[in-house]
Structures are given as structure tokens and as C-alpha cells.
Specification:
CATH architecture: Beta Barrel
Number of helices: 1
Number of strands: 5
Structural class: mainly beta
Number of domains: 1
Largest sheet: 5 strands, antiparallel
Shape: elongated
Length: 111
């Protein structure tokens, strides 16, 4: 015996206009640093990332933990193995002075 559907919504639902809303979920992904400079980084990753996305790169410089904020400027597929199928170019944003100095020292010592 079918019972009538009981509507519990207090207001009607409306379909959103395509492209107006964007959902961004925080994810954690392991990446490999392919290239590093004072202004940005090139990463290899197993997951694609959209250009314009913002991310945090957490690492260590020496014994110090460092969080670098970046914006993805370039993202391409790659013919490398599946565990590093995407190349992601990011530009550092809001680089804190102490992190900038750590990065400079690291680059000088590696060069």
C-alpha cells in the first residue's frame, strides 16, 4: 500500500545556474618537487589540480617545518608513470619573510 509523499521542505528548491557555484574540498596529496625557485615550484603529482587553485605545500627546510602558500599557474598531463602523471606549476603567494629567507638560504646552498 503506497502512502502519499509527505513534503517536509520549508521552501522550494531551485536548480542553480551552471558555473555560479563551485565546491572546493580540502584534499591531501603527496607530491614530488621537480623544480624550486624563490618565486615558485614545479611539482609532480598523481592527481590533477585546476589552474587557479590555491594550495599549501608543507615541507621542511633544514630542521624547520615550513608551509608555503601557492597558486596553481600551470597544470599539464605528463607521459611519466601513473604515480606522477601531472605536472603542476605554482607561484608562491603571501610568502612570509622568515620562509622567504629560509628558501633563499636553501637555494644558495643547493646552487
Amino acid at each position: 500500500m503506497d502512502q502519499p509523499f509527505l513534503e517536509r521542505r520549508r521552501s522550494p528548491r531551485v536548480a542553480p545556474t551552471p558555473g555560479v557555484f563551485e565546491l572546493s574540498l580540502p584534499i591531501v596529496a603527496s607530491v614530488q618537487v621537480a623544480d624550486l625557485s624563490e618565486t615558485g615550484v614545479l611539482l609532480s603529482a598523481a592527481q590533477p589540480v585546476a589552474v587557479g587553485s590555491r594550495a599549501q605545500l608543507r615541507t621542511r627546510i633544514g630542521a624547520e617545518p615550513v608551509t608555503l602558500h601557492l597558486e596553481v599557474r600551470r597544470a599539464t598531463g605528463d607521459s611519466r608513470p601513473a604515480d606522477a602523471a601531472y605536472r603542476i606549476g605554482g607561484e608562491f603567494i603571501a610568502l612570509e619573510e622568515d620562509n622567504r629567507k629560509r628558501l633563499e638560504r636553501l637555494l644558495r646552498s643547493e646552487g
